[in-house]
Write a structure and sequence with these properties.
Number of strands: 8
Structural class: alpha/beta
Oligomer: single chain
Strand order of the largest sheet: 1-8-7-6-5-4-3-2
Bound molecules: D-xylitol-5-phosphate, zinc ion
Length: 215
């Protein structure tokens, strides 16, 4: 079954609780953390995740677009994240491995994320221990960008790696997901769809979630 993860990056931050409740029929809540270094934008940090945790029971899928994420794994886990994803481009492989180990020790689910430039094979050293792989279908940093169709091949390749080495692992796509692009991503092998503008730009938020789920 396809899971939908609304991204609160496109929500109204002054009415975050209202906008989170509006998306409560979704499967995960996607939280984009940006540090102004790994990506040009700055969004939210640990205290906001802590506050979100207090106002919802939803599964918090926290996407860390930050340099050297190993420094913050424990803090985001303690703040209430259910899953953390670290970018493979954000640190040396030994420190990515250390990040995943810390996630395990903190009891949160483990994910790695791939910028569009990163090849599917980059997940191979970690695949046996992952709960989710996140394939970016835009350059990370901003909501509302166009879906990169060239990433469909990466999605297919990651799907093949998951099926071979760790079939329980989920495959999430993030960026430019709409009712038009969602079927392309799921046909290529994705089972979790992040959607920011397609959910929060809609007048009927539960309807938009349902529309994406049933593509
Ligand atoms: C982009 C973020 C995405 C973003 C997606 O760097 O990681 O999660 O919110 O927004 P849409 O769905 O509008 O492309
Ligand atoms: Zn994201």
């Amino acid at each position: 079954m396809i899971k939908i993860a609304p991204s609160i990056l496109s929500a109204d931050f002054a009415n975050l609780e209202r906008d989170i409740q509006a998306a409560s029929s979704a499967d995960y809540l996607h939280v984009d953390v940006m540090d102004g270094a790994f990506v040009p934008n700055i969004t939210i940090g640990v205290p906001v995740v802590q506050s979100i945790r207090k106002c919802t029971d939803m599964f918090l899928d926290v996407h860390l677009m930050i340099e050297k994420p190993v420094r913050y794994i424990e803090a985001f886990a303690k703040a209430g994240a259910d899953l953390l994803s670290v970018h493979l481009e954000a640190d040396h492989p030994t420190r990515i491995a250390e990040s995943l180990k810390t996630m395990g020790e903190c009891g949160v689910k483990k994910a790695v994320a791939l910028r569009p430039i990163t090849k599917a094979e980059a997940v191979l050293p970690y695949i046996d221990q992952l709960d989710l792989v996140l394939v970016m279908t835009v350059e990370p940093g901003f909501g509302g960008q166009a879906f990169m169709e060239g990433q469909l091949e990466t999605i297919r390749q990651v799907r093949a790696i998951i099926d071979k080495y760790n079939p329980a692992c989920e495959l999430e796509v993030d960026g430019g997901i709409s009712p038009q692009t969602a079927p392309l991503a799921t046909k290529a092998g994705a089972n979790v769809l992040v959607a920011g503008s397609a959910v929060y730009g809609a007048a009927d938020i539960p309807g938009a979630i349902q529309a994406l789920r049933s593509v």
